[in-house]
Amino acid sequence: MIAYCFCEWHCSSRIMSVLADGVLVAGVVVVAFPLLKKKTPDC
């Protein structure tokens, strides 16, 4: 998932890759969370 830093120039793009992974995970959580809540009965 996280890109490897091959050289100094790519370190900034590596940070962007980590941020992109974070956004991707957040998007999956936002989509999956309501589905999981729908399956579980309300207390």
Mean pLDDT reading: 76
Distance between the termini: 36 Å
Quaternary structure of the protein = single chain
| Helix content, binned percent | 55-70%
Number of helices: 1
The percentage of residues in β strands lies in under 5%
Overall SS class: mainly alpha
Give the overall shape: rod-shaped
Largest sheet: none
Low-pLDDT parts are none
Rg, rounded, reads: 16 Å
Q: Secondary-structure element sequence?
A: H
SS elements, strand count: 0
Protein name: DUF3927 domain-containing protein
Transmembrane segments: 15-36
Keywords: Membrane, Transmembrane, Transmembrane helix
Pfam families: DUF3927
Key attributes of the depicted protein:
43 residues; mainly alpha; 1 helix; 67% helix; rod-shaped
